[in-house]
Amino acid sequence: MLILGIETSCDDTAAGVVEDGALVRSSVVLSQDGIHSKYGGIVPELASRQHIEAIAPVVEEALAKASVTLDCVDGISVTEGPGLVGSLLVGMSFAKAISFAKGIPLTAVNHIEAHSVAAFLTEPGLAVKPPKFPFVSLVVSGGHTTLFLVNDYTAHEVIGETLDDAAGEAFDKAAKLLGLGYPGGAMIDALAKNGNPAYVEFTRPYLAKDSLDFSFSGIKTAVLNRVRGFNGAISDDVLKDLSASFQEAIVDVLVTKAMRAVKKTGVSHLVAAGGVACNSRLRRKLTEEASAYGVSLCIPPPRFCSDNAAMVAGMGFYKMQKGVFAGLDLNANPNMPR
Ligand code: KG4
Ligand code: ZN
How many domains does one find in the chain? Predict the structure, then answer.
């Protein structure tokens, strides 16, 4: 069964074709970073306008790369939320139009849940050890930081989430304070590789609490105070050390809480996904901790961690298998829980 996935929830226009929920035949992502970077964050109106321009060529490219036409597609899966309303509406309207014109069944998926189902995606030459149900999934992105207990592809139970900023948002805000560009997560990751993580012992936010929730808003004030102390003259070495120290604090909290969730639920499989799961330190530390506790860990390759439509197609397949379809009255759900 071939599903065409369409993803426009934030600032990436993405389309992909996936076979039977797992085999990625194509995954095309058009980033808008170049448009938003000069504003230091996403400008929603610019994002939706760019989606309007990009959606048709991106879908055409995804079909061409998969060597199929719409006549071969068995289903269309689109992100219905959460996200920016104008952005969501572009993908959703496009998906509904094709569904109506070609008579192709439609389904709608939750973006955050789709991130964890990316753990099942595979490609020729990509060795994947997919998780077994039930598993814990840590979804860390620019907009969300959530721990799920996943009992089935379509049964995600929230067991912890951020009370304020998302982990990716913390990375982006810290990067801005350090005078790096937007989005800053990957830049902090790169600088931290040559920095001293013990340069500043940032307080590990919300770690002492026994809960599985997160709080990342306070740490940016700690970074701001450090930056102010340098009066605008931060050397390259200090920049690397501050990046490494900040990253270590965030990663420490994410890894500790993910492992705490595994122990509390008694599962033996763990997934990490979402854009922040591209972070090299997070990937390494999770791998070490999971192996120390005998937990089977699955972190998709970076291209399936950050926003993409293959994960949306994958999730759509499992929803359709369960008989969950959407009608043409489907509406965007920007504040969809999670
Ligand atoms: O999942 P995603 O592509 O989009 C959302 O759904 O938000 O995640 C984007 C976030 C951004 O905040 C970006 O800075 C962060 O993921 N990110 C990283 C890295 N690569 C992307 N954060 C830390 N280290 C990275 N290597
Ligand atoms: Zn995302």
Answer: 2
200: nearest Cα among 245, 233, 157: 245
Predicted local confidence at residue 338, as pLDDT: 61
Is any ligand 1 atom within 6 A of the Cβ of residue 82? no
Q: How confident is the model at residue 98 (pLDDT cuts 50, 70, 90)?
A: very high
CATH (domain of 195)? 3.30.420.40
Q: Are 257 and 212 in contact (CB under 8 A)?
A: yes
Task: Judge if the beta carbon of residue 182 lies within 6 A of ligand 1.
Answer: no
275 lines ligand 1 (CB under 6 A): yes
Same domain, 140 and 248: yes
Q: Distance between terminal CA atoms of the chain?
A: 28
Residue 12 inside a domain? The answer is: yes
- Give the C-alpha separation, 301 to 19, whole Å: 18
pTM here is 0.96
Q: Is 279 in the pocket of ligand 1 (CB under 6 A)?
A: yes
Residue-wise pLDDT for 152-188, tens only, equals 999 999 999 999 999 999 999 999 999 998 889 999 9
Average pLDDT, the chain: 95
Candidates 250, 278, 299: which one to mutate for ligand 1, based on the most atoms within 8 Å of Cβ? 278
User: Is 139 found in the same domain as 270?
Assistant: yes
